[in-house]
């Protein structure tokens, strides 16, 4: 793995663990929720800036290309969004009827609860998070693995790592499958900007969908979805 990718991964890990540095200040803070959100936004922003500096050479090469294929990037980003949606629903169906796991990600619900209390947190969900995750999990980890093994195993392994980081192990299949789609978009277009846009789009779509509906209504819809899928597949 190139040294710059190692630095990229270290930056991401340091960002995830940066909250440890804030622990001594927590007892002194009156509004801890605001402080936590502010710290998260700051740490993600700093990590992204450092990551872009680390990859400045590759960014420069991209902007110097005579044919950036903007139309292709837009088309594949849209197709990627559709592919992720289809894959997500397929994975949820497998989790529900094969493994008996109820639809609805606890990780997603927790993030949405924070976003309801502090809308600025949406910046992390829709922008900062997707960019950092694609740079780390697709460009650095998947890209390095793909040089040593075939696409399927490289995408699967990087997808599992991507899923594990989200700490929502009951839905590890869904996260892994989505990660593999992002890897496919990256290798098919040879441009990391495509999975980044697709990732940002799917997260933003989820944010709009979740925040536009009352939490109790979401829970009721999830129950209806589960019942509908049971009827369609013939479950008891």
Describe this structure in words.
The chain has 236 residues and is mainly α. The chain has a domain at 69-233. The protein is 79% helix and 0% strand. The protein is built from 11 helices and no strands.
Gyration radius over CA: 19 Å
- Low-confidence spans: 232-236
Strand content: under 5%
Class computed from helices, strands and strand pairing: mainly alpha
Cα end-to-end separation: 49 Å
According to DSSP, the number of beta strands is 0
Q: List the helices and strands in order.
A: HHHHHHHHHHH
- The average pLDDT value, as a whole number, equals 84
Give the overall shape, derived from the CA principal axes: globular
For the sheet with most strands, the description reads: none
Number of H- or I-type helical stretches: 11
Q: What share of the residues lie within helices?
A: over 70%
């Amino acid at each position: 793995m190139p040294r710059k990718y190692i630095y990229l991964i270290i930056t991401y890990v340091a960002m995830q663990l940066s909250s440890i540095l804030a622990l001594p200040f927590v007892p002194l803070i009156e509004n801890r929720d605001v402080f936590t959100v502010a710290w998260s936004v700051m740490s993600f922003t700093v990590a992204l800036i450092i990551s872009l500096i680390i990859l400045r050479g590759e960014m420069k090469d991209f902007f110097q290309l005579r044919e950036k294929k903007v139309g292709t990037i837009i088309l594949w980003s849209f197709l990627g969004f559709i592919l992720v949606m289809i894959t997500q629903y397929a994975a949820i169906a497998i989790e529900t009827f094969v493994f008996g796991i109820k639809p609805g990600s606890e990780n997603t619900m927790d993030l949405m609860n924070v976003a309801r209390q502090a809308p600025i947190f949406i910046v992390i969900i829709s922008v900062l998070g997707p960019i950092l995750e694609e740079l780390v999990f697709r460009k650095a980890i998947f890209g390095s693995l793909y040089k040593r093994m075939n696409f399927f195993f490289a995408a699967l392994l990087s997808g599992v790592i991507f899923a594990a980081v989200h700490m929502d192990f009951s839905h590890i299949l869904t996260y892994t499958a989505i990660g593999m789609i992002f890897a496919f978009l990256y290798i098919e277009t040879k441009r990391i900007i495509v999975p980044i846009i697709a990732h940002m789009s799917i997260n933003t779509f989820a944010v709009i969908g979740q925040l536009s509906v009352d939490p109790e209504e979401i829970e009721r819809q999830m129950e209806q979805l589960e019942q509908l899928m049971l009827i369609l597949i013939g479950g008891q």
